[in-house]
Amino acid sequence: MTAPRTPAAIVADTTADLSWQEDLYKYLHAHPELSGAEEQTAERIEQELQRFPEWEVTPKIGGHGIAAVLRNGEGPTVLFRADFDGLPVAESTDVDYASKHSQLNAQGERVPTMHACGHDHHTTSLLGAMAILTDTREHWSGTVVAIFQPAEEASIGAHRMVTDGLGKVIPRPDVCLAQHVVAGPAGRVFTAPGPVMTSSTTIEITLYGRGAHASMPDRSVDPVVLAASTVMRLQTIVSREVPPGKFAVVTVASVEAGKANNVIPDSAKIALSCRFYDEELRKKCVDAIKRIVRAEAVAAGAEREPDFKFVGLLGATDNSPQVFGALRPAFDEAFGEDSTDMEPWSASEDFPVLPKAFGVPYLLWTVGITPRKQWERAVRAGRLDIDIPTNHNPGFLPDLSTLPVATKAAAVGVLACLQSQWPSEEERAGGAAAPSTPTDREIDEVAVETSGAE
Ligand SMILES: [Zn+2]
Ligand SMILES: [Zn+2]
Questions:
Q1: What separation, in Å, do the N-terminal and C-terminal C-alpha atoms of the chain show?
Q2: Alpha-carbon span 239 to 241, nearest angstrom
Q3: Which residues of 84-117 are buried (b: 16+ CB within 10 A; e: fewer)?
Q4: Cα 391 to ligand 1 centre (Å)
Q5: CB-based contact 197:349 (threshold 8 Å)
Q6: Ligand 2 centroid vs 222 CA: distance in angstroms?
Q7: How far apart are CA 256 and CA 25, in angstroms?
Q8: Beta partners for 58?
Q9: Residue 184, H or E segment
Q10: Please, where are the H alpha helices in 184-278?
Q11: Is the CB of residue 363 less than 8 Å from the CB of residue 177?
């Protein structure tokens, strides 16, 4: 009996037609839609899915979410997720497929839109991987689930698909995969086990004072001064309470107080965005935030306690060492020295909501998309931070040569998981406890609150 062919060998031999990919990518790139409003994008994806009559397609899951399932005999079930929402950013690139699109946001304002995070790339690559998997299905067996997910940037798309019954329309996966394009040498594929993306906690805080005439500060409890001292004191959490060498970000991204120069207002609002890899440290910092905010209010003589509104909560992306072990050798074979280690990334992702809903292991990897010459020039000049547009920057533009790379990575990743053994549901239930993450209840409460606010 001959050994089964490796994922890299299977993908190398494919004759799948991928000639449509670049046009599709350019179309999606030129027509970005905001989180939750991806109607035309979803329609176009559904249209593209007609290329694949072998896959069972379910549209409109949790809004514009789509699932496609290919059953191909006995074996594991592997889920691969691509997101497809854009951002309210005005594109500054000069390619002929740059977005000139705009859309009404939730507040009814017309805003320019851009695929500044590469979700158009993710979607095109997954469709390409579906073509390869369909073409090579005599070489593998099992089930593949392709998930096209809306509203990632709002952190609610995956949650909505799950709560809208995703589990009822797809077979239960054994393992979940996703990839993300990033600033980095074009075509490099980055993987790592363990925490690779941060958890995100967003808090809006209202500080109450007592309003007065601006000329009579003695009659007020001034919330502007209270907000100022609170913002400064919050800076001491990371500098004085977090162990040196541990990752934590506590950013006060918004301060709002007062509308007139002669009125001391009666309240102030601050909004915080906090990022962590370690869940214990997240809890410690959230406690410290509450302690400092309350104590500053007491110090100011405020009569009313501050209000805390948790408006966003995502767990960290904590890659499974087992999935990493299954994928990395396949990537090394497929990409040679372009398969390399991933550095943890301080951004956050809602992808882990999907594997968590099924209680299964997962891996998210990244693919570099910056033209190599541009990257190397910036490295030589010591100007990586300045010259290379990152995700969400108006100049973020994946090199077109990276579409086939991400397509191949998706196909190789799925095949590597199809060729591996995964513990059954019963075995998992009896196994080690899942790593500490925000509880489902915590996330549900926040997600419900956020989805109402859109
Ligand atoms: Zn993004
Ligand atoms: Zn993204």
A1: 57
A2: 6
A3: bbbbbbebeeeeebbbebebeeeeeeebbbbbbb
A4: 6
A5: yes
A6: 40
A7: 40
A8: 67
A9: strand 175-185
A10: 223-236
A11: yes
Count CB atoms within 10 A of the CB of residue 175: 27
Cα–Cα distance for residue pair 319/191, rounded to 1 Å = 9
Average pLDDT, integer, range 133-156: 96
Query: Are the beta carbons of 110 and 133 closer than 8 angstroms?
Result: no
80, containing H or E segment: strand 77-83
H or E element at residue 147? strand 142-149
Rounded to whole angstroms, how far apart are CA atoms 61 and 346?
29
Closest CA to 268 of 299, 239, 234, 228: 228
d(CA 290, CA 233): 12
Q: What angle in degrees, to the nearest 10, is found between the helix axes of 279-300 and 223-236? A: 150
Amino acid at 108: G
- Cβ atoms within 10 Å of 444's Cβ, excluding its own: 15
Separation CA 131–CA 427 (nearest Å): 33
- What CATH architecture applies to the domain 7-197+316-445? 3-Layer(aba) Sandwich (3.40)
Kindly report, residue by residue over 68-106, the tens digit of the pLDDT: 999 999 999 999 999 999 999 999 999 999 999 999 998
CA dist list (Å): 441 to 77, 287, 288, 409, 445: 27, 18, 22, 34, 6
- Return the amino acid letter for 97: Y
d(CA 82, CA 104): 24
What gap in Å lies between CA 133 and CA 372, rounded to an integer?
29
Please tell me the distance between residue 335's alpha carbon and the centre of ligand 2 in angstroms.
23
pTM of the model: 0.89
Distance in Å, CA 256 to ligand 2 centroid: 28
Interval between CA 220 and ligand 1 midpoint (Å)? 42
Q: How far is the CA of 117 from the centre of ligand 1 (A)?
A: 5
Centroid of ligand 2 to alpha carbon of 117 (angstroms): 5
- Mean pLDDT within 386-401: 97
Instruction: Report how far ligand 1's centroid is from the alpha carbon of 351 (Å).
Output: 12
CA dist 116 and 24 (Å) reads 17
Give the tens place of pLDDT for each residue, 397-435: 999 999 999 999 999 999 999 999 998 888 877 654 444
> Which numeric CATH code is attached to 199-314?
3.30.70.360
Segments making up each domain of the chain, as ranges: 7-197+316-445, 199-314
Task: Give the span between the Cα atoms of 4 and 415, in whole angstroms.
Answer: 11
Q: Is 120 exposed, middle or buried (0-12, 13-18, 19+ CB in 10 A)?
A: buried
- What is the rounded distance in angstroms from the CA atom of residue 254 to the CA atom of residue 263? 21
**What is the rounded distance in angstroms from the CA atom of residue 436 to the CA atom of residue 279?**
6
Contact between 368 and 183 (Cβ < 8 Å) = yes
Tell me the three state secondary structure of residue 173. Answer: coil
Whether 99 and 31 have beta carbons less than 8 Å apart is answered as: yes
